[in-house]
Design brief:
heterotrimer; A mainly alpha; B mainly alpha; C mainly alpha; B: globular; C: mainly alpha; 15 helices; about 70% helix
């Protein structure tokens, strides 16, 4: 029965893209195609682009991604907890308080270290 | 339907030393953020206090003064609380305390003073402790990572220096590789036995062998991979490549701590896995556990390579790196001896005794290098200790004690350690490897005595910078080395209670 | 349906498969077509907020405007930067819409109509929903355009940051219902969770809006700064795909809010007359959608540092506190694991509601304090700046 449900999801994964590709294919078939070199330049509000866009970039974004990773992985562990919460004793709450406190330690650390500042 | 666990099922009291340390480290991480930059001494003191409290609890538990509910284990068997756990905890905590003492001035004068140093040190100490307490392969893995990751960061603590960065990166990449081996091994063992708990593995091994199932080869492969993963941590040949480079590049105060802590953790886990999980993994037609021959082969290779290459070293940090490889070899003799039924308890005690002796000695030896080293990280060659005895007689004397102890000269802790290890080796009928151990010890005497020779009988201007926490650390290490050498029963008493739970 | 297919000669398995495939087509097409209506609603409402009339030429009340736009966009030329990284570039618009459309697979439209009632539904929502972020980054990077790249980086910072409070707030209905299945969560709402945990709903909506990159959080495509953001190099139907994806996302967020917090299809007689549930769900969703447009039209765009501060220093801690408070009270009350009727739910709902009122009051107080201190800080600084100027002025007299 469960598997039956997954068949639907699987079909969605297969047929969903088809539904989306159809309009794009239709457009490709119907729309005009007259490329010129100017048209095919990167769009920078009319200014001529200098060089390509694939360059080094600021590391701040990367730090946020790292902080996110810490939280996201821990959140996955919280799902089973929430799911079984009604069946567990007060013990579960105690455990989760410790777990969240560890998260908070990480948050306080990144906060105080200024990793959350945008400079 | 599963049974609903309650708080008392965790048996938290049994984990008190580790729990206190974990709590202390987490609190310190936050507290340190509010300690202003110039006053990191406070953080160092707090770290010492946390370690001290944990050490006292562990000592009381080890001495059977208080009963924390040991023997029952905690966290549903993930954590074993017995004498071995306590002994490992004591060794690790002593090492960590010495590590903090050694580090403070060094960090100050080399401009690396940051509160994270102490916090990371606490966390890695926790990891090493948990490795000794592991009752499950999962705990082994988590503890290993907790031990290693702070060490990777600490190795790169002098991050403006290329050598330190290289050391951190090398250690990290190879370490991650080794962790991969370990996890793969754990997966194979789980595949073969259907459990990751040592008790379960032990029981499943018997059934497996009784049924003579082909899966025993899967188990063999798994055990081999776990051995490789942990062998990396303890720097056993052929997984030793990282050791000299990392020890040379990393800040010396880090090496002082890391060289011992990683070894203690690695060997503790090795003892747990092999003696608790796989003691009865004896293939048909053999008298000892299947892993014994591999381990003693590794031991022999490690001793030979470590000692022979160390002879050629002129940099003190590299010299001690190869020496630490060699010492891993000696301990591996005892580990191999655990494979023989009836010797396992004695061998496990020998491992603990050796590690305790090694902790004092090796931290002390590196602490002397810390004193000799200049602020820029240079000046760690053997030439730089020429004539140190004239300039710093006490320091030179301490170094001499450490060198003699590492060489295994009687009346030092090192001798006691070697004595017990070789005894275990002979008791298990591992005569060839024990003989190799004795012979290579003789080789090692050459390069250890060479350091003493340079300090006392060569002319030169060996200089050192000593401030009181460092002096305190070195003296504790030197006195500890001597006391344990003069009163060996202190060590054997400490290890007395260690007994295997299964088999043996 | 399956019966009919079996009658025309298909085996049982094949019949089930075909029926399911038809279901997929219906749900997917409904999602896409609804977008056309959704865009019309949005434009009309937005126009009202700006004191305009909105689309009113094509068809009655301009209802056919979206269809005209769709036809137009299909006929548009597809202009492509010659430096793009082709595979990710072409995949991104499809993935962007697909990530939202896949969510519809687990939506229970009524008591009986549900595509797939997964027992890990909520986890599925989180997993599939975060694919959209990947699409944005793919588009921004592969376009090889500086504006698009900046937008992609902002996406990294913004979209993933706001995923944290969103997922934390999703834990609350899961905990209250004791199930990850969306249908089970709907059924367990004898009283809509909105009344029990309004704080959670607020956090979910705010972070959802940010995930969506709309409303005050539209830094990804801030016209005045980075032109069109990650889809600057897209035109024609590929741009249309992003457009559809964004609107569908906004509406899906409304549907999810309706399902998880407003009782979904539940309403008078919904259990008996099945299609009625669908109407209830649509009404609730459109209501939430209206609120979202309202927010979008009212608030000015936030700055990126404010945006991130707001998330990490306010929303994340708040959502964690909220989760623990709800969990604590839930455990404190007796029999919360057996709520089978309106009467059972009344007590716990009241308690949680009061707790939320206290929390709201606390947050309001804290925000006021914070704002006051901020103001004082600014005034103090202004005084320092102003003083020397006055002094010079006085000397000049």
């Amino acid at each position: 029965m469960i598997l039956n449900e997954w068949v639907f999801v699987g079909l969605f994964f297969l047929l969903g893209p088809v539904l989306l590709v159809v309009p794009i294919a239709l457009s490709k078939w119907l729309a005009p195609k007259r490329p010129t070199p100017i048209k095919q330049d990167a769009y920078e509000c009319g200014a001529e682009p200098v060089g390509l866009a694939w360059k080094q970039f600021r590391a701040e974004y990367y730090i946020f991604a790292l902080v996110f990773l810490v939280f996201d992985v821990e959140l996955v562990f919280m799902f089973p907890w929430a799911l079984a919460y009604n069946k567990l004793g007060l013990f579960a709450l105690f455990e989760m308080v410790i777990f969240v406190l560890l998260l908070v330690v990480a948050l306080v650390y990144t906060w105080r270290k200024g990793a959350l500042e945008w400079s | 339907m599963f049974t609903v666990p309650s708080l008392s099922d965790l048996n938290l009291a049994a984990t008190l030393p580790a729990t206190l340390l974990a709590l202390g480290a987490s609190v310190l991480l936050v507290l340190d953020l509010f300690v202003p930059k110039g006053r990191k001494a406070l953080t160092a003191w707090l770290a010492l206090a946390v370690l001290g409290v944990s050490l006292i609890v562990a000592l009381l538990s080890l001495g059977d003064v208080v009963d924390l509910g040991t023997g029952e284990g905690a966290f549903f068997g993930l954590y074993i609380a017995d004498s071995f756990t306590d002994a490992v905890s004591v060794i690790v905590l002593v090492t960590a305390m010495l590590g903090v003492a050694v580090a403070y001035n060094y960090l100050e004068r080399t401009g690396m003073q940051r509160g994270e140093y102490y916090v990371l040190l606490l966390f890695s100490a926790l990891g090493a402790m948990l490795m000794g307490a592991a009752g499950d392969l999962v705990t082994v893995f988590v503890a290993l990572e907790l031990l290693s990751i702070p060490l990777y960061i600490l190795s790169g603590f002098r991050w403006r220096d290329e050598g330190s960065e290289e050391s951190a990166l090398k250690y990290f990449i190879l370490g991650a590789f080794a962790s991969g081996f370990l996890v793969y091994g754990i997966a194979l063992i789980y595949g073969a036995t259907g459990t990751t708990a040592f008790g379960g593995i032990w029981a499943a091994t018997r059934d497996l062998l009784a049924a003579d199932a082909a899966t025993k080869y899967v188990l063999l492969l798994g055990a081999g991979m776990v051995l490789a993963g942990l062998g990396f941590k303890v720097a056993a040949v052929p997984f030793h490549m990282w050791t000299p480079d990392v020890y040379q590049g990393a800040p010396t105060s880090v090496v002082a701590y890391m060289s011992v802590a990683a070894k203690v953790g690695g060997f503790a886990a090795l003892v747990r896995v092999l003696a608790w999980g796989l003691p009865d993994f004896v293939l048909s037609g053999q008298s000892a556990a299947a892993w014994q021959s591999t381990v003693w082969l590794i031991a022999a290779l490690t001793m030979i390579l470590g000692n022979v290459v160390a002879v050629a070293q002129n940099n003190l940090k590299r010299l001690l790196a190869y020496s630490s490889i060699a010492h891993a070899g000696y301990i591996l003799i005892a580990v191999a001896a655990m494979g023989t039924a009836g010797v396992a308890n004695e061998a496990a005690r020998a491992v603990v005794i050796y590690l305790m002796a090694y902790a004092f000695t090796n931290v002390g030896a590196f602490a002397v290098i810390v004193a000799v080293e200049r602020d820029d990280g240079g000046h760690t060659d053997i030439d730089n200790v020429r004539g140190l005895a004239k300039e710093q007689p006490v320091l030179a004397a301490s170094m001499a004690v450490f060198m003699l102890s590492l060489a295994g000269v009687p009346l030092t802790a090192g001798f006691v350690g070697k004595w017990f290890v070789f005894k275990a080796g002979l008791a298990a009928d591992l005569v060839p490897v024990t003989v190799i151990g004795v012979l290579t010890s003789a080789i090692s005497a050459y390069y250890y005595l060479r350091v003493i020779w340079f300090m006392y009988f060569e002319e030169g201007e060996g200089k050192a910078q000593i401030a009181w926490p460092l002096a305190w650390g070195i003296s504790v290490a030197a006195i500890g080395t001597l006391i344990l050498g003069f009163f060996p029963y202190l060590l054997s008493d400490m290890a007395r209670g260690i007994a295997l739970a299964f088999g043996g | 349906m399956t019966g009919f297919l079996q009658d025309i000669g298909l085996s049982y398995e094949l019949a089930v498969l075909v029926a399911k495939a038809l279901g997929v087509a219906v749900v997917g097409a409904f999602g896409l077509l609804w977008t056309l209506l959704g865009i019309w609603i949005e434009r009309k409402v937005a126009a009202r907020f700006q004191d305009r009339v909105g689309p009113n030429r094509v068809g009655p009340f301009g209802l056919l405007q979206s269809i005209a736009d769709a036809v137009k966009i299909i006929l548009k030329e597809d202009i492509m930067n010659r430096h793009v990284d082709r595979w990710p570039y072409n995949l991104a618009p499809i993935l962007s819409t697909l990530s939202v459309m896949l969510i519809w697979a687990v939506i229970p439209f009524t008591a009986a109509w549900v595509g797939a009632d997964l027992n890990v539904g909520v986890l599925y929502l989180v997993a599939v929903g975060s694919l959209g972020t990947v699409a944005v980054i793919m588009a921004g990077w592969s376009s090889n355009n500086k504006y698009a790249l900046i937008s992609a980086f902002r996406a990294v910072a913004q979209l993933i940051s706001y995923e944290v409070p969103m997922v934390i707030s999703l834990l609350v209905p899961v905990m209250l219902a004791g199930s990850l299945s969306v249908q089970a969560i709907v059924k367990s709402q004898h009283i809509a969770y909105l009344f029990a945990v309004p704080m959670t709903v607020l956090i979910f909506l705010i972070s959802g809006q940010a995930e969506n990159g709309r409303g005050p959080f539209d830094l990804l495509e801030a016209e005045s700064e980075i032109v069109a953001g990650f889809h600057i190099e897209y035109s024609g139907m590929k741009f249309g795909m992003f457009y559809v994806g964004e609107f569908l996302h906004a509406f899906t967020l409304s549907v999810l809010t309706a399902l998880l917090f407003l009782g979904g299809w539940q309403g008078p007689l919904a259990e008996k007359i099945i299609p009625l549930g669908f109407v209830y769900l649509l009404l609730k969703s459109v209501f939430v959608y209206f609120v979202l447009i309202w927010v979008r039209m009212t608030l000015p765009r936030v700055r990126i540092d404010h945006l991130l501060n707001f998330n990490w220093k306010f929303l994340v801690p708040l959502s964690l506190i909220n989760l623990l408070v709800v969990a604590f009270l839930w455990k404190l009350m007796p029999d919360t694991d057996q709520i089978n009727s309106f009467a059972d739910a009344l007590g716990p709902t009241l308690v949680l509601f009061l707790a939320n009122v206290v929390m709201f009051a606390g947050v309001a107080w804290w925000l006021r304090e914070w704002a006051r201190r901020d103001r004082e800080h600014i005034e103090a600084r202004r005084a320092v700046v102003a003083e020397p100027a006055e002094a010079t002025a006085a000397a000049g007299d």
